[in-house]
Write a structure and sequence with these properties.
Structural class: alpha/beta
Shape: globular
Number of strands: 5
Order of helices and strands: EHEHEHEHEHHHHHHH
């Protein structure tokens, strides 16, 4: 049974999510929170498998709440809900440690599948959407700020641990390619690509594919077109 904590400042929105999720035979809603402070507290108390997190809320917003939940080291994983015109907010939520995000206009069945995927340890952002999101943010960010500073010692250390092939795979992941596409481009078996991705995540010390993509952008392995 997958346990879910719903976080949204709109009561009708929470009710809609609850009705959808409790209609699933393998899901149960363990609580609801109307703002970020309650989300952090209730996550620590209830330890849900998935926290369904809104971004814009009064007081502590969803981004900071996600950061605090991720930093706590607990097993709960955060699935952020946002709208397409909030690219920058979604990007910051991913940096904060979210396992992924869905658009609020997603079909109910897509959200249910997404929650199951997050609970299983996967990322629910499609490669193409990941690339559009990060490209959109980094393009805007680069026009407003100077180029990124030199790599930190920690970034240098983690990057140095990757083999040349693992760097190629990481760059391909950040470009938005699926495992099948990476296998075709690098002339590898798909199972080999999966093994490389797993080792990349382990060496970088990140939880999922999204965090690896963000690292790749941070260290300059990938850049927006």
């Amino acid at each position: 049974m997958t346990t879910v904590l719903i976080v949204d400042d709109q009561a009708l929105q929470r009710l809609g999510f609850r009705m959808l999720l409790e209609a699933q035979p393998d899901m149960t809603v363990v609580g609801e929170a109307a703002h970020g402070h309650d989300a952090v507290r209730m996550t620590a108390e209830l330890r849900p498998d998935v926290v369904l997190m809104d971004v814009r809320m009064p007081g502590l917003n969803g981004i900071e709440a996600t950061r605090r939940i991720a930093d706590s080291g607990g097993r709960s994983r955060v699935l952020v809900l946002t709208t397409f015109d909030l690219d920058e907010y979604a990007y910051e939520a991913l940096r904060a440690g979210a396992a992924g995000f869905f658009l609020k206009d997603a079909r109910p069945e897509e959200l249910v599948v997404g929650i199951r995927s997050v609970a299983a340890g996967d990322c629910v952002i499609s490669p193409s959407l990941t690339r559009r999101l990060i490209d959109a943010f980094t393009s805007t960010h680069s026009r407003q700020h100077p180029p990124a500073p030199r790599l930190t010692r920690d970034q240098q250390r983690r990057l140095a641990e990757l083999t040349e092939r693992e760097r190629e795979v990481l760059t391909a992941v950040a470009t938005g390619w699926s495992n099948v596409e990476i296998a075709a481009e690098l002339h590898l078996a798909e199972s080999t690509v999966k093994s490389h991705v797993s080792r990349v995540l382990a060496k970088l010390g990140v939880r999922d594919r999204v965090q690896a993509v963000i690292f790749a952008y941070d260290v300059g392995l990938a850049r927006p077109d």
